[in-house]
Amino acid sequence: MPALTPAVELASQARTPFPGASAEYEAARQALLAEEIEFRRHMTRLGEQRRALPPGPVIKKDYRFKDEQGFDVGLAELFGDKDTLVTYFWMYGPQRQRPCPMCTNWLGSVNGNAADIKQRVALKILGRSPVERQYAFAQERGWRDLNFVQTVGDDYANDLGILLPDGSEFPALIVFKRDGDEVRLFWASEMTKAMADPGQDPRDAPDIASLWSILDLTPEGRPADWYPKLQY
């Protein structure tokens, strides 16, 4: 790999798009741009390191699901004709009258990209509520490109440790890889609440939620006491 040009040198080429910027603003923005370049490079290294993971454990338990047609299927069948399966377990269990607003926010943004994502990998949204109930909410939101799957029983959620005694849940983003006739874990989000820095919610790196990524670009940043709602 050729040597990379220092980020500071690349950042020096920046030009503020509107006239009238102070020298203080120009210097601070250039320093920030150098950090943004380094961050981009770090994200690239993270992606390479993730792709280089050794084979994960074989999923030996026969987890059962009900797919969008209502058929009983196993994990391997969720792949369809793809070799990679991206799953998101959302917080919409039968005990909830309405889904988690943050899960809903994220799925709304994913729906906009789902048709493209599914050209490359299988994408399934898993939930404990009946699949018909999940699709009814999807129709209410205007989601057309997400495929919802019901977990049959609670073995899947219990084994992941995301189902609490009171019936509440945590979300789970997990990627599986087909390996011949077997299914292996490729990657799972493991940023737990205990790993969050002081004053922050637990989140992945890079952040998968476009809501927060956009707000990170604003002067106010991420609000400490605000979360999305299902209706405004």
The overall pLDDT, averaged over residues, is: 94
Number of helices: 6
Strand content of the residues, in percent? 15-25%
| Unreliable sequence segments | none
CATH architecture of the largest domain: 3-Layer(aba) Sandwich
Structural class call reads: alpha/beta
Explain how this protein is built:
This protein is an alpha/beta fold. The chain has 2 domains: 1-12 and 25-52; 64-188, Glutaredoxin (3-Layer(aba) Sandwich). The chain contains 6 helices and 7 strands, in the order H-H-E-E-E-H-E-H-E-H-E-E-H. The radius of gyration is 21 Å and the shape is globular.
Task: Spell out the key features of this protein.
232 residues, alpha/beta, Glutaredoxin, 2 domains, 32% helix, globular
